[in-house]
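Q: I have 265 residues here and want to know how they pack in 3D. Can you give me a structure?
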Amino acid sequence: SSGINAEYGVNKDYDRCKQIIKEQLEGTDGICEYAFYVQGMIQRSDALIQESLESFQAAAMLNPNSLENLKQVGRSLYLLGRHKAALDIYGEASKLAPEDSELLHNQGVCLVYLREYGKAEDCFKKALANQKTEHSYSQLGKMHILKGDTDGALAIYKRAVENFPENSELLSVLGLLYLQMGDTQKAFEHLGNAMTYDTSNVKAIMGAGSIIQDHGDFDVALTKYRVAATITPESHALWNNIGMCFFGKKKYVAAIRGLTRSHYL
């Protein structure tokens, strides 16, 4: 496994690594857990998800008490859209590590796909109790948005931003929640911060642009929308806003163009 480790972990020479794996599996009659594991990781990076699943399953059969093997089997099942099967594997893995935040989070994500929102929410809460991560905060916030609980979502995203003040995605969602609640000052502040950390965050650009547009500053809003148009040129909402800005500027031909484009998207 030292040869595999050198090529996979250090040199990143995957072609040479594949050759060493082939030789090791042939030389050990297929009884080399690490070779199967690394083979699975390379296959997944090559988008060979089914093949990666089979490699991780082989590694897990050789060492069923390896938490990492089970996590990777679950990950490949998840990527194949087999959410129930992935959840079952994560459940088996959690017997080995019941407090593992990554496992709890992944179980929550599978439960969202299975529309078991209550159980998913519990998983994200447990994951955050063990380790605070941006992903678990984001998922828990989405749970509250799905339920129509704007106040609950706001509380989650505020806590998330306290812990991850430079996360553009969390900042932009918090800003949009404030906008939804009519607090344009706090909305603009958080959307502005989101754009500071990620100038191409379309959610933040659109949110800030709409506030500027509502204040009648159409040229500044259009400057924001031009940035968004290079990132998401097929956005219905974007072209609608562009059209309405030109309408506000009394440039009716440009307004009709924008609104027509919005209509056809």
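Q: Anything worth noting?
A: The first helix runs from residue 2 to 11. Confidence is low (pLDDT under 50) at residues 1-11.
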